[in-house]
């Protein structure tokens, strides 16, 4: 079955100037994938007719579906409709349904319909007009030499309304598309190159219709398996077999799948065993607690925490022994151990975790440079500590430390709890 390829073209100087963020392309690509259409390129172009015509010509040579957003407003800089008419060599016509829609919207809001707004109902003569119930600018569907062009507003909620209520259904009817199935395996605490070495034989043995992509981010690597074929159910079963094999190779690094975030996975694991958690933070300044409590329902397992930024707070609130701070300093294994153990006892929780370090950009010494961080995990049976040597960027150090201490928590939960199922 022939693969159906798509290209997304975003139009607008504001995108190129960095004044707005293009979120449309990501959403559209995900929705196209669900109906078996693979996005192969994203292009952005300013409000210049010659440039738009050129990018449309290039997109037509590459893709079966060209989705266009932006440039459909009522002002002079919005030239997409006229440019499309020029591209196809046609004129413009007033669409009665589009005019009725914009008239009704203005009447509902108590505004008079101006001639400028009336012009929004003008569309190229060769298009199928898509009435936009979420706004005043209609969408436009063009069938040209066996390919589909669709022009939509750049406003995300308007684009989504047109896609969900018209475009996706009509694309599915127009093309006979293969099934596409994605599965994301989330790994942590192993770099991309080291991970690739460990799973090289597994990757080389993947069948030709299942492709692997490495998607690294801070402290994590997401492995995305993409399978194409005739049956979505068969693809899902095949991919699951591959995931099961992968789990026998790198079980310690896999913490979740698809949209799982580490804090969500940890919350589920704690709930499964009816375990409670508390936090003691220094260098992260409450970011660990913030990350944990982003999860709805976290109050069922997270009791609270202490931000003991100064040595005096560590002594007075967490009962860290003064001699420990004098002999070893706040950034030390000894201090972070006591922080985790004592917050667990003080807040009467099953588990305590802690952080202390030099986040930067200043404050480092030859023995403890910026980025030196200690983290700890404590329960009634054991205390585990870990030293991190991170970066000179303060925010990055805070974020990475939070990720690392949550992963230390995951790693030290009972073995039966850590088991991750797809």
TrEMBL record:
- InterPro entries assigned: CinA (IPR050101), CinA-like_C (IPR036653), CinA_C (IPR008136), CinA_KH (IPR041424), Competence-induced_CinA (IPR008135), MoaB/Mog-like_dom_sf (IPR036425), MoaB/Mog_dom (IPR001453)
Give the signal peptide range: none
Domain MoaB/Mog, by residue range, is: 7-174
Record-stated family: Belongs to the CinA family.
Q: What is this protein called?
A: CinA-like protein
Q: Which organism is it from?
A: Xanthocytophaga agilis
């Amino acid at each position: 079955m022939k693969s159906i390829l798509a290209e997304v073209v975003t139009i607008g100087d504001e995108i190129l100037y960095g004044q707005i963020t293009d979120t449309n392309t990501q959403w559209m690509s995900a929705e196209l994938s669900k109906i078996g259409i693979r996005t192969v390129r994203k292009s952005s172009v300013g409000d210049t007719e010659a440039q738009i015509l050129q990018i449309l010509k290039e997109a037509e040579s590459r893709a079966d579906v060209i989705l266009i957003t932006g440039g459909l407003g009522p002002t002079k800089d919005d030239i997409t409709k006229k440019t499309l008419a020029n591209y196809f060599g046609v004129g413009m016509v007033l669409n009665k349904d589009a005019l009725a829609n914009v008239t009704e919207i203005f009447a509902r809001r108590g505004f008079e319909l101006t001639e400028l707004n009336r012009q929004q109902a003008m569309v190229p003569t060769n298009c199928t007009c898509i009435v936009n119930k979420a706004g005043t600018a209609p969408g436009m569907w063009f069938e040209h030499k066996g390919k589909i062009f669709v022009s939509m507003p750049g406003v995300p909620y308007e684009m989504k309304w047109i896609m969900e209520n018209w475009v996706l259904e009509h694309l599915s009817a127009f093309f006979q598309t293969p099934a596409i199935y994605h599965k994301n395996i989330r790994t942590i605490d192993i770099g991309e190159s080291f991970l690739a070495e460990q799973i090289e034989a597994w990757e080389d043995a993947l069948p030709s219709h299942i492709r692997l992509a490495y998607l690294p981010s801070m402290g994590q690597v997401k492995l995305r398996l993409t399978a194409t074929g005739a049956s979505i159910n068969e693809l899902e079963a095949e991919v699951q077999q591959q995931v099961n094999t992968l789990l026998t190779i790198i079980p310690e690094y896999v913490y979740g799948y698809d949209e799982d975030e580490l804090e969500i996975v940890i919350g589920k694991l704690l709930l499964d065993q009816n375990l409670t958690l508390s936090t003691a933070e220094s260098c992260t300044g409450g970011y660990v607690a913030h990350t944990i409590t982003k999860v709805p329902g976290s109050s069922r397992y997270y009791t609270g925490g202490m931000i003991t930024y100064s040595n005096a707070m560590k002594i007075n609130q967490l009962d860290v022994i003064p001699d420990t701070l004098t002999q070893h300093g706040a950034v030390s294994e000894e201090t972070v151990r006591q922080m985790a153990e004592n917050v667990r006892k003080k807040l009467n929780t099953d588990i305590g975790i802690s952080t202390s370090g030099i986040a930067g950009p200043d404050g480092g010494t030859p023995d403890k440079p910026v980025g030196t961080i200690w983290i700890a995990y404590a329960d009634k049976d054991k205390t585990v500590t870990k030293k991190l040597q991170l970066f000179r960027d303060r925010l990055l150090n805070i974020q990475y430390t939070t990720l690392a201490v949550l992963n230390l928590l995951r790693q030290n939960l009972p073995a039966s709890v850590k088991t991750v199922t797809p």
